[in-house]
Known about the structure:
It is a single chain. This protein is an alpha/beta fold. The protein folds into 2 domains: 2-56, RecR Domain 1 (Helicase, Ruva Protein, domain 3), CATH 1.10.8.420; 59-200, Dna Topoisomerase Vi A Subunit, Chain: A, domain 2, CATH 3.40.1360. The chain has helices spanning 2-18, 25-37, 40-56, 73-76, 91-98, 127-134, 150-163, 188-196; strands at residues 58-59, 66-67, 84-88, 106-109, 141-144, 169-172, 199-200. The protein has a 5-stranded mixed β-sheet with strand order 4-3-5-6-7. Strands 1-2 form a two-stranded antiparallel sheet. β1 and β2 form a beta hairpin. Mean pLDDT is 90; it is low at 1-5.
Amino acid sequence: MASDMAIESIEKLTTQLARLPGIGRKTAQRLAYHILSVQKEQATELADAILAAREKVHPCPVCGAFTDLETCELCSDPKRTDAVLCVVSDARDVLSMEKTREFHGRYHVLNGSLSPMNGIGPGALRINALLERCKTGTVKEVILATNPDVEGEATASYIAKLLKPLGVTTSRIAHGIPIGGNLEYTDEVTLAKALEGRRIL
Length: 201
């Protein structure tokens, strides 16, 4: 009976781990057995860290990036320029762009890309919030740094059309990033070159 319960617990843990992006069934099982092999304190620390992150971390009300502060450090930093806004699809992409050390403006996270096939339309993204930020007159250039895949390109084109009447210069990062790639997995040098070679839309 105890053995059956233990197996059921491992199965449940493996199933939950397999739901994580990029984690297949075999990797999930390997992680589950690793968690079982460490000291109880270490497993507890892992569980506590997950719960603490879920409770304390939230989207920044200004840019949409993750933070555990009222407003994220990037939005609060007085040294960054308000004139240039970098638009990314996902909060993780902010970290990727920051690694280049080439961008000193502000960010705007869309929380996804347009994907009609998956039922993701403009209303599901933070596009209206972007337009409101651009209507203040402070933003002079918007860099569209969405992923260079079909959805990312469609999203960039759609936003560029909306921004045109506002008189904001709109540019797109250059394709030093391979088509079909993701910013999350792109190295700093490639991202820096993509920023340098951005083009006006």
